[in-house]
Design goal:
Length: 135
């Protein structure tokens, strides 16, 4: 069985690239622009669902983007299925205080007809990441 590619073309690839580019740039507006106007983010699954671009941008601007100096995130494997993607990713972050933390997880993205992200569900151990990141 062959390994899944990390290259996806078309609107699906553009949405994924835009989301990851926004995260890497630590730019809440760029992140939220990858979503539909009424897009949803549940990250990690079981946490509060952020609804709409404004709420998603606010979540990142008060969270990860406000306390990080650098963030590198890249897909490891991508599994497309219809209008959805399961994306295994790896992330490395340095805080403004100089602490470094890494995380791995899987995001399930559901895309709208316009190619933007309608919903993301994140599966990862946020608690362990925050413990390493915040000390």
């Amino acid at each position: 069985m062959s390994e899944q590619s990390t290259n996806i073309d078309g609107a699906v690839g553009q949405a994924l690239k835009a989301y990851f580019a926004g995260l890497s740039a630590l730019d809440p507006e760029m992140i939220s622009a990858a979503f539909t106007e009424d897009g949803e983010l549940e990250d990690p699954v079981g946490s509060t669902v952020r609804k709409g671009r404004t709420e998603i941008a606010k979540y990142f601007s008060k969270g990860l983007c406000s306390v990080s100096r650098t963030l590198e995130i890249a897909p490891v494997k991508i599994h497309p299925a219809g209008n959805s993607l399961a994306v295994q990713w790896r992330m490395s972050v340095e805080s403004l205080a100089g602490k470094k933390a890494e995380a791995e997880g899987i995001d399930v993205l559901t895309l709208a007809e316009d190619g933007l992200i309608g919903r993301i569900e994140g599966y990862w151990d946020q608690r362990a990441f925050l413990k390493a990141f915040m000390g």
